[in-house]
């Protein structure tokens, strides 16, 4: 193996970082500080050919292969003990085609970079709410963000992808070429190959109106009920979500209230400012905000506004659900567990995934559960490993309580390592077809460090963990 990695280092344009190298300690780290894996080598791919070389070597030598885009995977799928890591962080580029209103971006690009470049053209597409997340993992798993009610999921805006498949071929996947692979990439996660370039449809988005508001917990249930009723008929220009969040010590938060948990609303309104103001007045009439930071801002500013709450290296443990009806009973459960949010970094978001997400038929892409109206996530994030047990317990107890009010499965990008037994449920009716496409493109399951779809579609047996 040493010889093979040495030969690879001579062949690739990027660098091959091994345990003896000074850069190794930093290079082996992923976003979730709980992950402490020691891969055999991290290959900082500089070109598509580098990616091809890594995939071929892993396949030939039977090596464990980890693919890392932005490195945000909560289960730490971008690394593994003894693995060869195809690190795509060197493949960061964004090229906008104004005529076609598309952007082609390298497979390791982050949303911050993507949004900054497209914003200069007055354009955007649906991306995540934190700027450091990779476009790779987020898009392949679906992609929920501020713009999804208006413009669909990130994967719905994917026009084409350049993909290195398990046999080391570099192929294009779009509606015409390798259409089955293209179908599977839109929600199926990293199961089908390494995407070296994503091309997205863009939309005119410049200044948005919005930001966070914090409401008293005493009014929390009323705010959540108001949100549920409002969002059912809300204009698609409204993106945003209710949350449980400890107020950070920021200038707009009264000093004596920082550190307390609140029901929050984070809004992103892409329509005329006055209309956005009226919409938020509706919430203010339900409960006078304790704190708010609302105003017009460039879309990328909102996309990076919360980065400071989630620096790299925190401990992460998350759970996800899909919900059709946010019933009063479900809201009562949220009001019991949400206010126990343990740290300022942790949060609970109830993302609405209706609007344009529902325009796409359920079998048109691999993404499961287009019948759901909400994708709640319980995102446990905390700095000190000594608190792991208590924080994981909070996430698990919360999830166990909302599960009876939720559909089976949960958005794969918000799931934890112990959620592999929910993968089939996550895809529902699409799982069988995913299994067939997996068998065709990756019969030996080379790409298995992900929420894994088995070749042939056999479900992973249930382990009984919540
Ligand atoms: C702080 C934070 C905020 C988040 N916010 C959102 C949000 O707003 N909306 C949302 O939908 N999700 C969000 N997520 C979840 C996010 O979508 C997933 O963690 C996603 O997997 C991250 O992608 P990545 O490329 O950064 O991660 P990585 O860890 O690099 O990769 C995740 C998975 O995707 C695969 N992968 C990555 N890039 C490629 C590629 N180019 N080709 C093939 N496979 C690839 C990897 O092999 C791995 O299996 C957030 C996560 C974090 C930690």
How does this structure look, described?
This protein is an alpha+beta fold and 466 residues long. The chain has helices at 2-11, 24-27, 48-61, 111-119, 135-141, 148-151, 179-185, 220-233, 273-286, 299-304, 328-337, 356-359, 388-402, 423-427, 431-441, and strands spanning 15-17, 41-44, 65-68, 84-87, 94-97, 102-106, 123-124, 158-164, 170-174, 194-201, 203-204, 207-215, 238-246, 261-269, 291-292, 295-298, 315-320, 347-352, 374-382. It is globular and about 65 Å long. The chain has 15 helices and 19 strands. The strands form four sheets. Strands 12, 13, 14, 15, 16, 17, 18 and 19 form an eight-stranded antiparallel β-sheet that branches. It has a five-stranded antiparallel β-sheet with strand order 5-6-10-8-9. The protein has a four-stranded mixed β-sheet with strand order 1-2-4-3, with helices on one face. Bound molecules: flavin-adenine dinucleotide.
Layout of helices and strands, plus pairs?
Layout: H1 2-11, E1 15-17, H2 24-27, E2 41-44, H3 48-61, E3 65-68, E4 84-87, E5 94-97, E6 102-106, H4 111-119, E7 123-124, H5 135-141, H6 148-151, E8 158-164, E9 170-174, H7 179-185, E10 194-201, E11 203-204, E12 207-215, H8 220-233, E13 238-246, E14 261-269, H9 273-286, E15 291-292, E16 295-298, H10 299-304, E17 315-320, H11 328-337, E18 347-352, H12 356-359, E19 374-382, H13 388-402, H14 423-427, H15 431-441
Parallel strand pairs: 2-4, 3-4
Antiparallel strand pairs: 1-2, 5-6, 6-10, 7-11, 8-9, 8-10, 12-14, 12-15, 12-16, 13-14, 13-18, 17-19, 18-19
Helix pairs in contact: 8-11, 11-13
Bound molecules: flavin-adenine dinucleotide.
Flavin-adenine dinucleotide binds at residues 31, 67-74, 77-78, 88, 107, 128-130, 133-134, 136-138, 140-141, 143-145, 189-190, 194-195, 310, 413, 449-450.
């Amino acid at each position: 193996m040493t010889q093979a990695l040495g030969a690879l280092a001579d062949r690739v344009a990027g660098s091959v970082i091994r345990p003896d190298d000074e850069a190794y300690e930093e290079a082996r780290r992923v976003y979730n500080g709980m992950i402490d894996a020691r891969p055999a080598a991290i290959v900082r791919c500089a070109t598509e050919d580098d990616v091809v070389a890594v995939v071929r070597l892993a396949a030939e030598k039977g090596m464990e292969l980890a693919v890392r885009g932005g490195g945000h995977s909560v289960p730490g799928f971008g690394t593994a003990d003894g693995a060869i890591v195809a690190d795509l962080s060197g493949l960061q580029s964004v090229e906008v085609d104004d005529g076609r209103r598309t952007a082609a971006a390298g497979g390791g690009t982050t949303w911050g970079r993507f949004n900054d470049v497209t914003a200069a053209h007055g354009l955007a597409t649906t991306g995540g709410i934190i700027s450091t997340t990779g476009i790779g993992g987020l898009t392949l798993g679906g992609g929920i963000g501020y713009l999804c009610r208006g413009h669909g999921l990130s994967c719905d805006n994917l026009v084409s992808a350049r993909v290195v498949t398990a046999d080391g071929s570099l192929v294009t996947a779009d509606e015409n070429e390798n259409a089955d692979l293209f179908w599977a990439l839109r929600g199926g996660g990293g199961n089908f190959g390494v995407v070296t370039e994503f091309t997205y449809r863009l939309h005119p988005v410049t200044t948005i109106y919005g930001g966070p508001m914090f409401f008293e917990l005493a009014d929390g249930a009323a705010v959540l009920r108001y949100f549920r009723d409002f969002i059912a008929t809300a204009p698609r220009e409204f993106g945003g979500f209710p949350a449980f969040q400890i107020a950070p010590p920021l200038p707009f938060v009264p000093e004596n209230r920082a550190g307390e948990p609140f029901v929050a609303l984070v809004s992103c309104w892409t329509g005329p400012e006055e209309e956005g103001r009226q919409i938020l007045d509706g919430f203010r009439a339900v409960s006078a905000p304790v704190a708010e930071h609302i105003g017009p801002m460039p879309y990328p500013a909102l996309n990076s506004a919360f980065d400071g709450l989630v620096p790299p290296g925190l401990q992460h443990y998350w759970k996800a659900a899909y919900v059709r009806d946010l019933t009063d009973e479900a809201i009562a459960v949220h009001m019991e567990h949400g206010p126990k949010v343990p740290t300022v970094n942790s949060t609970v978001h109830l993302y609405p995934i209706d609007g344009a997400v529902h325009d796409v038929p359920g079998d048109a892409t691999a993404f499961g559960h287009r019948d759901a109206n909400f994708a709640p996530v319980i995102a446990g994030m905390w700095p000190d490993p000594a608190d792991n047990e208590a924080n994981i317990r909070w996430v698990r107890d919360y999830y166990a309580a909302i599960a009876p009010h939720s559909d089976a499965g949960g958005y794969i990008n918000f799931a934890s390592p112990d959620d592999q037994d929910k993968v089939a449920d996550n895809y529902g009716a699409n799982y069988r077809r995913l299994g067939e496409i997996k068998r065709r493109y990756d019969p030996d399951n080379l790409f298995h460090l992900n929420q894994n779809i088995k070749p042939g579609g056999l479900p992973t047996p249930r382990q009984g963990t919540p």
